[in-house]
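Problem statement: downstream parser choked on a complex file, so we are re-checking the raw output for the zinc ion run. The parser issue turned out to be on our end (a line-ending mismatch), but while we're here, posting the original submission so the record is complete.
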Amino acid sequence: MEKREELNRMIRYAQRLMKTKDDGILGDVTKVLIEKSIYKNPLINKQFNSLQKLIALIQFTALAKGIESGKIDGLIGSQTRFAFEQLIYLEKHSKLPPTWRAEDQVLGKTDSESNRHNPHGFPTYQNIENVYGEPASNLKTVQVPFELRLAWDKSVKVQKITCHKKVAPSLIGVLEDVLEHYGYDRLKELGIDLYGGCFNHRKMRGGKKLSTHSWGAAIDLHPELNQLRWNHKRALFAKKEYEFLLESFAAEGWVSLGVEKDYDWMHFQAVKL
Ligand SMILES: [Zn+2]
């Protein structure tokens, strides 16, 4: 239901962009207009289907307006979702929203017990380079203990992920515990296998600093139902069935922004607050 609604909003936005009636239906007229709009755009893959082209058009529009929208891949991932909300705000208010410092707020100290538990000596953001080096350095590609599905294209199976070499053993350890506890069928049912990305050299969503993903020291799981600004009332990982998942990360010293800050429940990082 929510997904259809989201798609509908995106179609209507693209229709307004192309100055046609915004009925939210990807019909023939809209398809022709999309073809026209992207025809000379070298950044948009002409092999995409109509819907992917429409999403790509939105991604390109965001990019052109200085909003970080990730790859122009025609897929709706968290970055696209975030960029889209910025575009809607821009359309309404003729300016970008004030920076909402999602992951940025992690700079504020937290005194919780789970944040103090630090068996592997993970750094805080302030001393991240002393421990992990420069962004995008010391990376390692590792086999995951169970097959993941790419969250925004579930037909894509992921067997290996790239993260910082210092966090790899504990991350694999968490995934092994999770597999042992839930079993593969159950964890798949719970969507714990829906992979939203690990290493990704980018800024924090809604912030200006580099995300902890830039060091490969963070992983996102099941982004669709743990969206950036959702709190525990909406986020899936705040539900009881996921307690073990949260505890496993905490036991290895990983920080859940959901637990600590009550937003971005998809996000776990090997960086202390
Ligand atoms: Zn994240």
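For whoever reads this later: The chain has a mean pLDDT of 91.
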